[in-house]
Amino acid sequence: MDKKLFVISGCSGVGKGTVINEFMKRNSDDFILSVSCTTRKPRPNEIDGVNYFFISKEEFEKNIKEDKFLEYAQFAENYYGTKKKYIRQKMEDGYNVILEIDTQGALQVKEKMPQAVLIFIAPPSVEELENRLRGRHTEDEATIQKRLAQVKIELERSLKYDYTIINDSIERAVEEIESIVRKNVAG
Ligand code: 5GP
After folding, report:
1. Of 59, 110, 151, 159, which sees the most CB atoms within 10 A?
2. Binding site membership of 105 for ligand 1 (Cβ less than 6 Å)
């Protein structure tokens, strides 16, 4: 049976990483989380080829020119992108592929591969998201305000997604993703 591509995005601070990690723990037999390329520097504990393929700006731009990316986006001076060849290879290996990418990239994927299934993870409310962002104590006020403005843009783009799920409980969000992917893989 043909393998499927699922794209999962969510507002910053919505807890999508936790939800996706939990989904992957339970479904690693036939699902794989795609590894993107980026030009940003690795954070402590990040491993090349595991968290990202860390490449230079020159190499990234060469790949753009040669049309090697299924999608890519640029934030804060850094590029992030998904290689076409990587996705093709994983599908040939027998996996359904999950992309955890931003909303700009997700809409590029939908244009090139209309059969891809787009899932958006939304916060229960913008106030709740604001509390979560503040609770992390990792960003200053100006950054939080910028993030909240970005949330509005993302929520707007999410209207083009196939599914939106509310992350009010991790367990329920994971179950909802499982039910969506099972339905689409079977179909
Ligand atoms: P971070 O630098 O925190 O790892 O990621 C920053 C943002 O880049 C996140 O919103 C993440 O979803 C997004 N991202 C990671 N990989 C890709 C990719 O391959 N393509 C796109 N469009 N966004 C990505």
Report:
1. 151
2. yes
